[in-house]
Amino acid sequence: MSHNTFGHLFRVTTWGESHGPAIGCVVDGCPPGIALQESDLQVWLDKRRPGQSRFTTQRKESDTVKILSGTFEGVTTGTAISLMIENEDVRSKDYGDIKDKFRPGHGDYTYWKKYGIRDYRGGGRSSARETAMRVAAGGVARKVLGAGVTIRGALIQIGPHAIERKRWDWAEVDRNPFFCPDAEMAKEWEGYLDGVRKAGSSVGAIIEVVAEGVPAGLGAPVYGKVECDLAAAMMGINAVKGVEIGAGFHAAELRGEENADQMRMKGNDVTFLSNNAGGVLAGITTGQDVIVRFAVKPTSSILTPVKTVDVHGKDTEIVTKGRHDPCVGIRGVPVGEAMMANVLADHLLRHRAQCG
Predict the structure, then answer these.
(1) How many CB atoms sit inside 10 A of residue 6's CB?
(2) pLDDT digits (tens, 9 = 90+) for 7-18
(3) Alpha carbon distance 131, 233 (integer Å)
(4) Quick check: pTM over 0.90?
(5) What is the DSSP string of 96-138?
(6) CB contact at 8 A, 26 and 82
(7) How far is CA 293 from its chain centroid?
(8) What digits encode the pLDDT tens for the residues 54-73?
């Protein structure tokens, strides 16, 4: 299978399957001399870890990461950093009844058509289990970016229920199981998701990721645009079906003078009066917050019977048992943060290579 690597100078290659013995990644291009230990990565993996509330999959994984190479005496050496997480709570028998059926909304059919074989145990390589390694790599990327760059994500909508931005409080994100910045909406989501879960169904969500402290000048015009790489990174996350930067689709409703981020001098510095561009102009960062939102579709593995076909070409129905997120968008928040970090770290190294 090709295309298991993303990035240019900061390159990440992931490997492993949902129900295999382990998953892992190799991070190449990390500069030497950066303090790095497993606890630096574990803190982010713990945010993504399954089974932390009734609103996520009950698969029990500690997601304990091991650094196998690329560090010596607590600092990076400039060589490839190999990371691994062992799979601990595999229940492949849950998929025995559907091994010949294609799950609608999943990659079962397309994998089968492309490769002539597929791992039916949780989707194999196409499982969101793989994103744990993106989060681990993102931990390395954050160290490359340094303490001056802060990356935070939040869930801003579940189904039709969106937060009230006037109540946005970053401190609330760590106080509820949804990474929600709106305390009142988080309470409403509890009852709503309980109903979805008990009905054997699922629902989609929207996630917003904000990077503060990003220096101006990262990225390149034409084929090296920061927003292009960010869009590709977010679209590459499982179940993501839409991405927008800054004002995004709302920009289509604005007039030119409303959408333009007008500028003024503040001392010796240029300041912007708004940030509809999401911190990127002509593919290059402006020094403002980089803002990305992405939409996640409802989890396709549900207990509600749905129509499908099998590998023998027969019409049938399918019910997907096992342990699945009623809203996969919840655990998508730390994954979105990680992909933001990976892209920005890559562009930081590319900028240094060209401009010093």
Answers:
(1) 20
(2) 999 999 999 988
(3) 12
(4) yes
(5) GGGTTBPPTTSSHHHHHHHHS----STTGGGSGGGHHHHHHHH
(6) yes
(7) 11
(8) 666 656 678 899 999 999 99
